[in-house]
Amino acid sequence: MKLYSGPLSLFTQKVRIALAEKQLAYERIEVGWSRADRYLPHHPDVVALNPKCQVPVLVDRGLALYDSTLILEYLEDRYPEPPLLPKDPALRARCRQQEAAADEIWFPHVWTLIEERFYPPPADGSDAGRAAQAAGELGALYTELDDALEGRDWYGDAYGVADIGTFVMAQAARVLGAPPPAELRNVSAWTERVQARPPVAAEIEATTAFLARTLAA
Ligand SMILES: N[C@@H](CCC(=O)N[C@@H](CS)C(=O)NCC(=O)O)C(=O)O
């Protein structure tokens, strides 16, 4: 199995965590990335395998698959143990929905913070108001998450892709200056549980080190 991976790609990070949780061996191919040029030029294999020219791309048994959500679904179908989705159809759908919401609803606000705080300002200037608005939207999402976690340790009936996808976005928001409010106790306790998972802890450590090197360069 091969994974085309980006060092700061949150979408790839979800897949790396799932592969580690399922204890699957794979070859990791790190595509080029820099703060100035981002992913350009795209890795030629990624151009060939993904019409969107994005990572992650997973190659397994002759199948080349792009989009992190679809990759997680494939991994669950092909390598069901240990499970990262509940068996109950309604709970399973709820977790899949949350995993997708992390990408589609949370990530755009995280992306605003990335653009404002990490990449060089665009030619038309940086707008601090955008970052404040994104942090506010994330605040509302943290509150929703806190409500969803009331009385439960995990988003579903056990740790799984909903926790991984949501945590990855929340962790990036935290690093970018929009942490969850401390009074959201369910989110705080859940965060501690998720980051105690060895694959998650390893990702946080590697990403923090890469970020520090990038910002020092
Ligand atoms: N919906 C896709 C998004 C993937 C994505 O946005 N990948 C970014 C890195 S985080 C990328 O490869 N960007 C390269 C580019 O657009 O040039 C997924 O879930 O995999």
Sum this structure up briefly.
The protein has 217 residues and is of the alpha+beta class. It has 8 helices and 4 strands. Strand 1, helix 1 and strand 2 form a beta-alpha-beta unit.
Describe this structure in words.
The protein has 217 residues and is α+β, with helices and mostly antiparallel strands. The chain folds into two domains: 2-78, 3-Layer(aba) Sandwich (Glutaredoxin); 89-216, Glutathione S-transferase Yfyf (Class Pi), Chain A, domain 2 (Up-down Bundle). It contains eight helices and four strands. The protein has helices at 10-21, 44-49, 68-78, 89-117, 128-148, 161-175, 185-195, 198-216; strands at 2-5, 27-30, 57-60, 63-66. Strands 2-1-3-4 form a four-stranded mixed β-sheet, covered by helices on one side. A hairpin with a 2-residue loop joins strand 3 (57-60) and strand 4. Helix 1 (10-21) runs parallel beside helix 3 and helix 1 (10-21) crosses helix 6 (161-175). The radius of gyration is 17 Å and the shape is globular. The two termini are 33 Å apart. The relative contact order is 0.14. The model has no long low-confidence stretch (mean pLDDT 94). Bound molecules: glutathione. Glutathione (GSH) is lined by residues 6, 9-11, 39, 53-56, 67-69, 103.
List the helices and strands and how they pair.
Layout lengths: L1 E4 L4 H12 L5 E4 L13 H6 L7 E4 L2 E4 L1 H11 L10 H29 L10 H21 L12 H15 L9 H11 L2 H19 L1
Parallel strand pairs: 1-2
Antiparallel strand pairs: 1-3, 3-4
Bound molecules: glutathione.
The site of glutathione has 13 residues, from helix 1 and helix 3.
